[in-house]
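Thread: "does anyone have the structure for this chain?"

Original post by V.I.:
We have the sequence but no experimental structure in hand. Need at least a predicted one for the grant figures.
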Amino acid sequence: MAVPFPIGERLVYGARYGPFSVGTATMEVAGIDTIRGVEAVHFVFLIDGGALWYHIHQNLESWVGRHDFRSRRFLNQTEEKGKSWERKFEIYPDSGFYREAGRDTTVATVPDPLDDAAFLYWIRTVPLEKDKRYEYHRYFRPERNPVIVEVLGRERVGVAGKKWEAIVIRPRIPNGGGIFAEKADARIWLSDDSLRIMLALQSKFSFGQVTLKLKEITATKEKADSRPEHP
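Reply from O.Q.:
Generated one for you, tokens below.
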């Protein structure tokens, strides 16, 4: 499937820990690059915030095939509690393996791989029925499959200056880490319309539960799945 999101879509969130404002987050369709000869849409998910003695800066970047929605590259840069690390993966869906930067070995991947950032966009494209439980074997590291998504129901939420009808889902990667780890008990609110914008995300960090709520939507440019015009 082609990537349906418009280049330039930028969603800005406020992060709250209980009654306290503790930072911001952004989701952005940053542009189109070429990865090993394949046109790839570049997604960026950035969290910057903290509470009291705790601070986190996490930058997740994903490059997925523009016309097949399969991950080609994934970058995770994290600073947390005074420590920082970076992990970068090159993913070869046509050859069936991935490689982590700094390691010589290759590891088998799934036929249609997705990474953490790509998943946030891909879940906006699939049918989601109330009270259904879905299992997807698409995480690029096979041992962390299946990714489980439960549809908890529908709610009306107020974010970004308006009221929205929302689909509430619980995503989790049983053997994974990060915001979708089993212990994080994450929830996502998606707009119940054709855009499926992420209105809010709730997840548990080491210091407590944080909720991201949509504050603003930046105007968009061209569709990522549009074809270039030829004279």
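V.I.: this helps a lot. The radius of gyration is 17 Å.
O.Q.: and Residues 116-122 form the longest helix (7 residues).
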